[in-house]
Amino acid sequence: MAGTPPRPWLGIAAVLFGAFISTLTGRLSTFGLADIRGAVHAGFDDGAWITTAQTCGQMLVTPIAIWAGGVYGPRHVLMYGAALFALASTLIPFSGSLEPLLMLQFLSGVGSGTFIPLTLPVVLRSLAPKYWAYGIVVYALNLELSLNISASLEGWYIDHLSWHFIFWQSVPLALAMMACLYFGLARNPLPRTPKRPDLFGVMTAAIGLALIYAALDQGNRLDWFASGTIVGLLAAGGILLLAAVAHVIHTPSDWFDPKGALRWPLPVLLLMVLVLRLTILSTAFLIPQFLISVRGYRSLEVGQALVWIAIPQLIAAPVAAVLLRRMDSRWTACTGLIAVGMACWIVSRTLTPEWGPHQFLPTQLLQALGQTLALSGVVFTSIQHMKPESALTFGAMVQTARLMGGEIGLAFTATLVRVREQYASSRIGEHVVRGADSVAIRLEDYAALLTSRSGSTGGARSYAMLAGAVRQAAELQSVIDGFLVIGLVAFAAVGAMLLLDRAPPSAASYRPFRFSFWRKLR
User: Fold this and answer.
1) Which stretches are transmembrane (predicted)?
2) Are residues 175 and 69 in the same domain?
3) Same-domain status, 97 and 155
4) 430 by DSSP, 3-state: which?
5) pLDDT above 90 coverage of the chain, percent
6) Do 351 and 484 contact (CB within 8 A), yes or no?
7) Which tens digits make up the pLDDT trace of 478-501?
8) Residue 89 and residue 21 in one domain
9) Residues 361 and 307: beta-carbon distance below 8 Å
10) Which residues, other chains included, contact 57 with Cβ-Cβ below 8 Å and sequence gap of 6+?
């Protein structure tokens, strides 16, 4: 019984399901942060650490999960992780204050943080190489689908149930995952005398990554290097991470393979994963930013817009799988990146203050196809270049690139939008001069509008409406700049993919289209 599991498809479903709920829970708590803060009576600054606590737990456990998965097997690690995640998610809504909420959020992150690093190794070991493309596509679909449906779920929970279900919805999902793991993964016996863990390498890497992630997550709020907290987190995390890298390079380790991680072109491809997390933010961050700040939409209404990029990915996933099997995965990734870049460029050229969810729909459909093709192509290309013995190391690197890429992308995009909004507001304000004819005409129009609606004579309210119009124009310009920059990043990533060599032939390599049907017709 210690060999092949009786139902390997259940094990694959479990780890893919875990990757889905791990990302979904983090996004749900982000969208519902205002309601969670209010429930535990936390201010804006203190409450900002609620989501950071969870994601820091995910980052902290990544190296530990890789070591434990190699020693005790993925089944034991994932079962304990899912149990901890379910327990923490059950208890979080009962937190009466911020401190226990932060502790439980951290434990929830530790539990869910075991899911994604072990997903790819389990998929690759459980599937025959000719089916890897299908597993990778579902893996990519999971990550992107969970990002784009979370706003809809959070809005529905708040409007129809309560904020508690942001966390409670994870409990049955985690229990279902545990059942699939129990019946699906091999029951490998525990080692009688496990190797002594590389505590220095594992813990310095884990703590260093968690500190750097916390700095990135809080940097925009605390104004980056103007804050001693951010400088201290970055300095401490950087020193610990460098110490971990130096240690694993000079000391043989059974939890991390530096040669496998640095094997060309894996560093470039992992950088592509980071870049793709940035491009996904064009929908996951910029569209909500526009709809909330410029149009005044609520979370549920924003979710109804984002769901249109989630649904087409269900159709794009089978297309991506076929292309990976029939076309060089580099070209699949390039096709997706070009589609993402074109979608961002079109929005940057046509976005107006009157846009709503329906106006975003054509570019969202293009971006849904592009994101699925790009992420699937990049991950599959990485696997073709990877050695089987480096599977656990590769899983850790993908998890690190995924979390760090998302956080770096979010920090970069949020800072870009904030700085560009301030710049645009300053430049527009230069043309709004008291006494100027255009300003006087605009104020008279506002006064007439207020008189017709409420009977008031305007006055200060006219000036407030003018200030609001300036702010709206500046916010619109900042979102346009964000789409433009992300589009340029996507096009630059195409150039990086074209520089890579073709993967060595293997059982997972593509099979070119033969077009035998057309040859018979001729």
Assistant:
1) 9-28, 48-70, 77-96, 102-124, 131-153, 165-185, 197-216, 228-249, 261-285, 305-324, 479-500
2) yes
3) yes
4) coil
5) 4
6) no
7) 888 889 988 898 898 888 888 777
8) yes
9) no
10) 105, 106, 107, 108, 109, 110, 111, 112, 113, 210
